[in-house]
Design a protein that fits this description.
Layout (H helix, E strand, L loop, with lengths): L1 H18 L6 E2 H4 E3 L5 E10 L12 H13 L17 E10 L8 E8 L10 E8 L5 E8 L5 E4 L4 E4 L4 E10 L12 E6 L4 H15 L4 E3 L4 E5 L8 H9 L2 E2 L6 E5 L4 E4 L4 E2 L2 E5 L2 E12 L10 E12 L3 E5 L7 H9 L5 H14 L2 E2 L1 E4 L1
Amino acid sequence: MIIKRIYFFFFTLAFLALLVPPCNSARIKDIAKLHGVRDNQLIGYGLITGLSGTGDDMKKSVFTLQAIYNMMTRHGITINPDNINDIKVKNVAAVMVTSTLPPFATSGSTVDVQVSSIGDAKSLAGGTLLMTPLVGPDGEVYAVAQGPLTIGAFSFGGKAAAVQKNHPTVGRIAGGAIIENTVPVAIGEDGTLQYQLNNADFTTASNLAETVNKRFGQGTAFPDSPGTIQVTIPKPLKNHIVDFVASMEVLQVDPDTPAKIVVNERTGTIVMGEDVRLSTVAVSHGNLSLIIREDFNVSQPGAFADGETVVTPGTSIETIEEEGQLVLIDMKPGVSIGEIANALNAIGATPRDLIAIFQAIKASGSLHGELVIL
């Protein structure tokens, strides 16, 4: 029964592969964005209350104490400024609240907020964020956040031991901010639109303009730089900008990217693009292992002999060097990335070894592409 299911699974994959031809195209909305349509970052300072003794230490976090005093004063609670140090609470924590104002957001809609402690609070679990104005770079208030916090973490312990999962001092409030002010976005007021490519490229910009011109007529789109394309709104659609943008963004474009090999030396991750090419090159690879071992021997005198039993340390060093292999990698035009990987794996190289190999091949001039090391 299992074998039949496996056969049916592979038959389905083969059938779908016949129906869907190989294609590297992408929608315009996935490789470019409309100029002026962007997010705006918001930030605010607030207080979390209701913590179970895990809040800020009032002796160390003076700003938290000052914020509590200001909040009480605004609510009509009179406190002598000279006695501000007498406030002793353990269930309050000062936090920074951040959020993102999306484009075309309207007053009354909600956005998520992220809350992070800036004091010495041990945990924000179970806390509630008090009303916090969120301001933009211009200092104007665009949203107000408030609500119970969700952190997805815990931290418990005493003086001798503690247990913690995830980060208990960072949390999130889904839909915790109500938008009070909006950022106006003007699109197509002068009869033109500008698209910005996510990755600037001459070929991609030309392909995008050609695709738009085929759909809406010659002269509609013009690439004025490798990263921007100017689009003129057709006269019949000047009063239907949303429909025009919607119909244009679903058009399929063949994006082009330079050949790159990206390696992360810390994690040993290697990612190669499909256009990476190698010239004929010989690679020699060998592993050297150095083993240093500390052994402790006991020196004990014979029976009825003078002397003491002592421990004598000894060091043994063993060097193991595998035989190096000289492998000829003959890359023909149009070779696939899988064949490159198979040729390099033939010498038994690990991902970390491949990083050094790629660097050496790049230095020899046999690697046709950009090598990016993170």
